[in-house]
Amino acid sequence: MLASGEARNALLIDLDGVIYQSGHLIAGATDALDWIKKQHIPQLFVTNTTSRPRAALLKKFETMGFSVSPDEVMTPAIAAAQWLADHRLQKAALFVPPATAQDFNRVEAIALDSDAAVDAVVIGDLGEAWDFALLNRAFQMLMREPRPRLIALGMTRYWRGKNGLQLDVAPFVKALEHAASCEAVVVGKPAPAFFEAALEMLGTSADRALMIGDDIAGDVDAAQRCGIRGIQVKTGKFRDADLDGSIKPFALLDSFADLPAWWRQTLSG
């Protein structure tokens, strides 16, 4: 059982590289998740995945052997759709995978080959679908008057796939910012607004939360800049060289499977 007052601690948990990697569960991850639920520790999965909608993520989790409810998963697409609605930006050019577009059902998606004006240009992870023509199309839309807002579904630099490290969304957003002389609104990690929204969903404060991730910059450092304790796992995109810099995690675990033992030793009592 949790010690008195400990139940207020809450967890923000990254998915890819922490719970699973290359489509396979990290050894011991489901046991750790079961332990978290038994201890009634509030949790929220926070992911920068934009290659598929939240509904597809939930189905993917089930095929891997664990299930979560929609309100336990926060994605950049969900956050971006809410941001656009809050700011009354109704027309958007969605540079996201077709399936992910379904999470933007509250805005009017403008065809990417249209000459119509748009309120926002949304950039997600298109992977190998990116080419000069597509990136240039996004640039052309950003240069129209009145100038639309550039929305970035996260600023993750790279991730680890089956073929090793691969570029994520940030390099493409940076290219567009530079070319169009604008600054993106970031609605995924490592933006403070993303973590603030996650804390609000959990109903907790930064000093009572811990972020578990495999990205020393986008997970650990970004969370700690918001006052959230960052836990680095040595899976996913982690490299030993990550620990040579100025970023110092609150804790370092070999994998997510080690969380229960660390929690009992460090936080209990």
Outline the structure in words.
The chain has 269 residues and is an alpha/beta fold. It folds into two domains: 6-48 and 191-266, HAD superfamily/HAD-like (Rossmann fold, 3-Layer(aba) Sandwich); 82-186, 3-Layer(aba) Sandwich (Rossmann fold). Helix content is 30%, strand content 19%. The chain is built from eight helices and 15 strands. The protein has helices spanning 29-38, 54-64, 76-86, 132-142, 170-180, 192-202, 216-224, 259-266, and strands at 10-13, 20-21, 24-25, 43-46, 73-74, 91-95, 108-109, 120-123, 149-152, 158-161, 164-167, 185-186, 209-213, 229-233, 251-253. The strands form four sheets. A six-stranded parallel β-sheet has the order 5-4-1-13-14-15. Helix 4 (132-142) packs across helix 5 (170-180). The longest helix has 11 residues, at 54-64. The radius of gyration is 19 Å and the shape is globular. The chain starts with 9 loop residues before the first strand and ends with a helix.
Helix content: 25-40%
Total strands: the figure is 15
Large-scale geometry: globular
Q: Could you state the order of secondary-structure elements as H and E?
A: EEEHEHEHEEEHEEEHEHEHEEH
Residue runs with pLDDT of under 50 for 5 or more positions: 1-7
User: What structural class do the secondary elements suggest?
Assistant: alpha/beta
Mean pLDDT: 91
Query: Strand arrangement, largest sheet?
Result: 5-4-1-13-14-15
CATH architecture of the largest domain: 3-Layer(aba) Sandwich
Query: How many domains, as an integer?
Result: 2
CATH class categorisation of the largest domain: Alpha Beta
SS strand fraction: 15-25%
CATH superfamily of the largest domain: HAD superfamily/HAD-like
CATH topology of the largest domain: Rossmann fold
- Give the termini separation: 10 Å
By DSSP (H or I, 4+ residues per run), the number of helices equals 8
Give me the Rg, rounded.
19 Å
